[in-house]
Amino acid sequence: MSGRVMWAGVRAVCFDMGGTLVRPEAVATTGQVAEVLGISLEEARAFMGRGAKRRLVTPLDLAHELAAGFERPALTGLLTEVLERARSRAEDPQLYPDVPDTLAALRARGFTLYAMTNALGSSVPEQEPAVFRELLDGVFYSAHSGAIKPEPEAFAAVEQASGLRPEMLLHVGDSVNADVRGAAAAGWHTAWVDRHRTTGPLMPVASTLRLHSLNTLPLLLSARVAAEPITSEVAG
Asked: Are the C-beta atoms of residues 65 and 83 closer than 8 Å to each other?
């Protein structure tokens, strides 16, 4: 990492949530659901992607939908427990240690800060956690926009709310497909957070930057101070 300033035209930075800002569980909620139902992770992901990540739903109602959809009515109670735990974690997110200082440094330099997540609709908290209200200008949930990364509509929701053009936005995330390829296809700048230090010549998009933590991000954006305030309302 040379320390040279990049992305000179960027006005706002948007972060992925789980795996980038928030520590994920050893087994993600969708994986836990797959284990309870006795189905493959791919089957569970496909089910969630069709509806559960695109709309708000209670843990109990989603548990009923899953149990009915996979013909496992007796597992409704166990599924509800898994989904309620996930909602509780979303209400009290556990941030990576490098997150607070990084976001504070970026905000001090005048950047608008967002987060965007494909979280299940059953995990969206009724009130934004205090830590996000303090550190971010807005959080975009797929359950509100109806679009999930890497779909262009997910990124368009941020553009519309911020009033910024794609080239003025930087997306930072750990998913090669959803975050890096999705944002790049939308015309955004991208940074890939590879906290696990993936081995091999893996670079998802030629123009992206690979970070092993968020600590260096403010250095790469240090020369950029917003010329005027950006006023917008974020509905999610």
From this structure: no
DSSP state of 9: T
User: Which structure tokens are listed for 220?
Assistant: 């790469």
Residue with tokens 């205090």: 130
Please state the pTM of the whole predicted model.
0.89
For residue 142, give both structure tokens: 């797929």
Q: To which H or E segment does residue 190 belong? A: strand 189-193
Q: Is the domain of 116 the same as that of 174?
A: yes
- Which one, of 193, 126, 114, 192, lies nearest residue 154 by Cα? 114
Per-residue pLDDT for the chain (236 aa), expressed as one digit of tens each?
445 667 888 999 999 999 999 999 999 999 999 999 999 999 999 999 999 999 999 999 999 999 999 999 999 999 999 999 999 999 999 999 999 999 999 999 999 999 999 999 999 999 999 999 999 999 999 999 999 999 999 999 999 999 999 999 999 999 999 999 999 999 999 999 999 887 665 666 767 889 999 999 998 886 554 444 444 445 44
Please state, as a whole number, how many other Cβ atoms lie within 10 Å of the Cβ of residue 19: 17
Same domain, 101 and 192: yes
Domain count, the chain: 2
With 0-12 / 13-18 / 19 or more C-beta atoms within 10 angstroms meaning exposed / middle / buried, residue 42 is: exposed
34/113 same-domain check: no
DSSP letter assigned to residue 24: P
Query: Are residues 87 and 187 both part of a single domain?
Result: no
Domain-embedded: residue 18: yes
Count the helices and strands in the chain (H runs, E runs).
10, 6
